[in-house]
Design goal:
By secondary structure, this protein is mainly alpha-helical. The chain contains 11 helices and no strands.
C-alpha cells in the first residue's frame, strides 16, 4: 500500500514538472510572438555603446547578488550544525547554481546536494536545509506582493501599500526570530538578493524609457519583478522561471508602460540575469579548480 502511494506521488510530481515545462514553453512562445509583433517598433538605437557598458555593469551586480543566496544557504547549513566555511558555501553554490536552467528546475538543487555529500556532509541534514531554504525564499518574495496592490487596485495609494509592506516585513521577521536567528538572517540575505535584482530591472527599464519613472511606478515595477520571480520560482519544471517570469511582468505592467519598451526591458533583464549567473558560475568554477590544483600532491 505504501509502495502504491509512493508510486502515485512520483507520477504526480512528474505530471507537475511536465505541466510546468509546458507552461514555460507556452510562455516563451508568447514572449517570442510579442517580440516578433513589435520588431519594427523596438528602437535598437537605444543599445548604444554606453548603454551596453551599463548592461555589463548590471551583469556584475547580478553576479554579486547571487552571493547573497549563497550566504543564506550557508546560514541555514550552520543552523543544522553543518560546519563549513563561508568560502566553501559560496563556491559550491556558484558551481551548482547554473544548473537551474536545465529543464525541470531541480538540477541545481540536486547538483548542490551531490557536491555537499561528496564533501562528506550528512545527506539527511542537507535535505532538511534544502526544504527550509525553499520555504524561506518563497516567503521572502511573497511579502512584496503587497506592493503590487496599487497596480491591480489603483484606489490604493503607494504609501498605504508601503505601510502594509513594512508591517508584513516586520511580521515575517518577528515570526522568523521566534523560530531561529538563522532563519531571520537567511530572510535578510534573500531580501538583499531580491531588492538588488529588482533594482537592476528598474534601471534597465528607466534607461529605455524616454520619460522618468514616477516613484509609484518605480515601486510597482520593482515589486512586480519580485512577484514575477516568485511565480517563476514556484512553477515546477520551468527552468529558472524562463518565460513564466516574462509573461507575468508583461501582464502586470503592460497597462502602465509602453509595451514595446517593457518587452525590450524584460528580454534584456533576462539576458543580464543569465550573464550574472554565468559570471558567478565561472568565478566559482575557476576558484574550485585552482583549489583542487593546489591541494593535489
Amino acid at each position: 500500500m505504501m509502495r502504491f502511494g509512493w508510486a502515485k506521488s512520483a507520477r504526480f510530481k512528474r505530471a507537475l514538472h511536465l505541466l510546468g515545462g509546458v507552461i514555460a514553453v507556452a510562455s516563451l512562445y508568447f514572449v517570442g510572438q510579442r517580440l516578433y509583433q513589435y520588431r519594427h517598433e523596438i528602437d535598437i538605437d537605444l543599445l548604444t555603446p554606453g548603454f551596453t557598458v551599463s548592461l555589463f555593469t548590471l551583469i556584475g551586480v547580478i553576479g554579486a547578488a547571487n552571493v547573497f543566496l549563497a550566504l543564506a544557504w550557508h546560514t541555514l547549513l550552520r543552523r543544522q550544525l553543518i560546519n563549513v566555511s563561508v568560502r566553501w558555501s559560496v563556491l559550491t553554490y556558484g558551481v551548482s547554481q547554473l544548473a537551474k536552467y536545465v529543464p525541470g528546475n531541480i538540477a541545481h538543487l540536486a547538483g548542490r546536494q551531490v557536491l555537499a555529500v561528496a564533501a562528506g556532509l550528512p545527506g539527511w541534514q542537507l535535505a532538511k536545509v534544502m526544504a527550509v531554504e525553499l520555504v524561506v525564499q518563497a516567503v521572502a518574495a511573497s511579502v512584496f506582493a503587497v506592493l503590487i496592490i496599487p497596480v491591480v487596485w489603483p484606489g490604493l495609494t503607494v504609501w498605504t501599500a508601503l505601510l502594509c509592506w513594512a508591517a508584513a516585513i516586520g511580521g515575517v521577521g518577528w515570526v522568523a526570530g521566534c523560530l531561529s536567528r538563522a532563519i531571520t538572517q537567511a530572510l535578510l540575505w534573500n531580501w538583499l538578493f531580491l531588492l538588488s535584482s529588482a533594482s537592476v530591472f528598474v534601471v534597465i527599464l528607466q534607461s529605455i524609457l524616454s520619460e522618468t519613472l514616477s516613484f509609484t511606478l518605480i515601486v510597482a515595477t520593482g515589486s512586480s519583478f519580485i512577484v514575477a520571480w516568485l511565480i517563476g520560482f514556484i512553477t515546477p519544471g520551468a527552468p529558472a522561471g524562463v518565460g513564466v517570469r516574462e509573461v507575468v511582468l508583461l501582464a502586470l505592467l503592460g497597462s502602465y508602460l509602453p509595451e514595446q519598451n517593457l518587452l525590450l526591458a524584460v528580454v534584456l533583464a533576462r539576458l543580464v540575469t543569465l550573464g550574472g549567473d554565468i559570471i558567478y558560475f565561472s568565478i566559482a568554477g575557476i576558484a574550485v579548480l585552482q583549489q583542487r590544483k593546489n591541494a593535489a600532491p
